[in-house]
């Protein structure tokens, strides 16, 4: 009998945990759709809970406020785009330079393919979260990835003794600007091709001439 009570308690706990997870998933999915369609400021929490079919109390149980929910959405979107770009070039492991350039192009194409993703990550992201918080989030995915890639290229002697983190910041800023330029272009397809070529030239140019010798000694 005692075992049955314990098992029943575990089942209820698992069921409660699943309901909690389902509620959080519904809130993030609904908010992501609405933030992507009309933007953060045009979306109210009342609209989110109504669309997600949960209570306002449930929203504030999982998130401190709308901004906290927006950050969860940003993280989900950033993770998905970054993971997709990396997965698409997985077969190129061991080819650091070629994979970096291929991943870059795919990443840009993924961002360009969705106005909602652009609005969430590049337009509302820094405005809502603030530069430092937004950059910190991006660092967990894109910035850190570029630091690793550039460090590896430097260790392989394919680029010179350059300051890696500032260089990664410049590359990421260039990618963001390129995506926004494509998003607002009259001819997005042509602009995408031009921007992809320009970014490839910019980053590929770092390794064009091989290792840079240090003659300071």
Provide a concise account of the structure shown.
The protein is an all-alpha fold. Helices cover 78% and strands 0% of the residues.
Q: How many distinct beta strands?
A: 0
CATH 2nd-level architecture of the largest domain: Orthogonal Bundle
CATH topology of the largest domain: Tetracycline Repressor, domain 2
Per DSSP, the total helix count is: 9
Q: Spell out the helices and strands N to C.
A: HHHHHHHHH
CATH superfamily of the largest domain: Tetracycline Repressor, domain 2
Strand content: under 5%
Question: What is the CATH C level class of the largest domain, in words?
Answer: Mainly Alpha
Give the helix level as a range of percent: over 70%
Largest sheet at a glance?
Answer: none
Mean pLDDT across residues? 86
Distance between the termini: 81 Å
């Amino acid at each position: 009998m005692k075992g049955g009570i314990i098992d029943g308690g575990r089942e209820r706990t698992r069921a409660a945990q699943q309901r909690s997870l389902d509620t959080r998933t519904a809130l993030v999915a609904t908010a992501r759709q609405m933030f992507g369609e009309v933007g953060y400021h045009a979306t109210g929490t009342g609209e989110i809970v109504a669309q997600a079919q949960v209570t306002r109390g449930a929203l504030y149980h999982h998130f401190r406020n709308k901004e906290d929910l927006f950050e969860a959405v940003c993280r989900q979107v950033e993770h998905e785009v970054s993971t997709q770009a990396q997965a698409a070039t997985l077969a190129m492991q061991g080819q650091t330079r070629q994979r970096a350039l291929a991943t870059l192009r795919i990443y840009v194409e993924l961002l360009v393919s969705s106005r909602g993703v652009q609005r969430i990550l590049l337009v509302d992201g820094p405005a809502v979260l603030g530069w430092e918080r937004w950059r910190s989030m991006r660092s967990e995915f894109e910035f850190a990835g570029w630091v690793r890639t550039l460090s590896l290229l430097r260790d392989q002697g394919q680029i010179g003794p350059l300051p890696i983190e500032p260089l990664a910041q410049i590359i990421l800023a260039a990618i963001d600007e390129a995506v926004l330029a494509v998003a607002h272009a009259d001819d997005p397809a042509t602009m995408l091709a031009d921007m992809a070529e320009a970014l490839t030239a910019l980053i590929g140019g770092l390794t064009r001439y091989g290792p840079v010798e240090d003659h300071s000694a």
